[in-house]
Design brief:
This protein is of the alpha/beta class. The protein has helices at about 10, 20-30, 45-50, 85-95, 125-135, 160-170, 210-225, 240-245, 255-260, 270-280, and strands at about 1-5, 35-40, 60-65, 70, 75-80, 105-110, 110-115, 140, 150-160, 175-185, 195-205, 225-230, 245-250, 265. It has two domains: about 1-80 and about 210-280, HAD superfamily/HAD-like (Rossmann fold); about 85-205, Hypothetical Protein, Haloacid Dehalogenase-like Hydrolase, Chain: A, domain 2. The protein is about 35% helix and about 30% strand.
C-alpha cells in the first residue's frame, strides 16, 4: 500500500494556512482512487484541526514533528516521545541564559494539551501567545505553574539568529534532543499574506526520537505501508525525506530540502502539491 505524507505549512497549505479548493478537489480524487494520505507537521492537534477539517484525514497523523501520533479513529495518541524532566530543565536553562522566552508544550492525562510560557518580552511573543490561545485552542499558563511531573512534548521560542545559534550549540551534546529552527513567519491579519521577519528566528526542541522520519517508520509497520511519498519544505522534513521512497519539495522549500528532493514542484501558494499529484496519479 502507498501512503502519501504531507507537511502542512509551506507545503500543502497556502499562504493563508488553508487547503485551497483546488487542493481539496485533488484530495477528493485521491480518496475516490483509494490513495491513502496523512500529514506530518510541527503543529499540535489543535492547530492542525482547523485547516484539515472536512478533508477526511482519517489515518494516524504525525504531529509536533513526530513527537506524537494522533489516531483519529481511536481519538487518542497512539505513540509519543516525550522529554524527561532533566532535559526540560536543561533546555529552559539554555533559553534563559540567552534571553529567550520559552513556550513549553505539555500533555496532561495522555490527551489534554496546555502551554506554559515565561514572561513575554516583545510584541511578537504577545501575538504568538494570543495565536496559541485563541486560534489554536491551547490554554496558557505561566511557566511558574508547570507541574513537576508534567509530560513535555517540546519547547519553542522566538529570538535573534545569534541567540538561536547559541541555544543550538548549548544542547548539541544532548543525544536525546533535536533542534529545528528557521526564519519566523508573521501570521496573516485580515486575509493579508504572511511575510518573513528576517530579524526574528524560531527554535523548537524535541526528543531526538520524535522525528517525522521515525514516526513514518512507525506507521509503515502499523499500517503495513510498502511505499511512502513525502512532501515537505523545511529542515524538520529532512528525516521524512530520508526514509521516504519518493520525496518532493515545493519551489519555496529550504535549500537543504531542495537538494535532496527527487523533484522540485510548484510553489505552495500555487497548489504545487495538488498539481503534481494530479499528474503523478493521473487524476481526472
Amino acid at each position: 500500500m502507498t501512503l502519501v505524507v504531507f507537511d502542512l505549512d509551506g507545503t500543502l497549505l497556502n499562504r493563508q494556512s488553508r487547503i485551497s479548493s483546488f487542493t481539496a478537489d485533488t484530495l477528493a480524487m485521491m480518496r475516490a482512487r483509494n490513495i491513502r494520505y496523512t500529514v506530518a507537521t510541527g503543529r499540535t492537534l489543535q492547530a492542525a484541526t482547523g485547516p484539515l477539517e472536512n478533508h477526511h484525514f482519517v489515518l494516524p497523523m504525525i504531529l509536533k514533528n513526530g513527537a506524537i501520533i494522533w489516531s483519529p479513529k481511536e481519538a487518542r495518541y497512539s505513540h509519543h516521545h516525550l522529554l524527561t524532566r532533566e532535559e526540560v530543565w536543561h533546555v529552559l536553562a539554555a533559553f534563559t541564559l540567552n534571553e529567550l522566552t520559552p513556550f513549553v508544550f505539555a500533555l496532561h492525562d495522555g490527551h489534554r494539551h496546555a502551554l506554559y510560557h515565561g514572561p513575554l518580552r516583545s510584541r511578537s511573543e504577545e501575538k504568538l501567545a494570543a495565536l496559541f490561545e485563541a486560534e489554536r485552542n491551547l490554554p496558557l499558563e505561566p511557566l511558574s505553574a508547570l507541574p513537576d511531573e508534567v509530560s513535555v512534548i517540546n519547547v519553542f521560542s522566538l529570538g535573534s539568529d545569534t541567540a538561536v545559534d547559541r541555544v543550538r550549540a548549548s544542547i548539541s551534546g544532548e543525544q536525546h534532543l533535536v533542534t529545528y529552527s528557521g526564519i519566523a513567519i508573521h501570521e496573516p491579519e485580515l486575509g493579508a499574506p504572511s511575510t518573513p521577519n528576517r530579524g526574528l528566528y524560531w527554535i523548537d526542541i524535541h526528543h531526538s526520537m520524535g522525528s517525522k522520519g521515525n514516526a513514518i517508520n512507525h506507521l509503515r509497520s502499523e499500517l503495513e505501508i510498502e511505499h511512502v511519498i513525502a512532501f515537505g519544505d523545511g529542515d524538520n522534513d529532512l528525516s521524512m525525506f530520508e526514509c521516504a521512497d519518493e520525496r518532493y519539495a515545493p519551489q519555496n522549500a529550504d535549500p537543504a530540502i531542495l537538494d535532496i528532493a527527487d523533484k522540485v514542484i510548484g510553489h505552495h501558494d500555487e497548489d504545487g502539491v495538488a498539481h503534481f499529484l494530479r499528474e503523478r496519479f493521473e487524476l481526472l
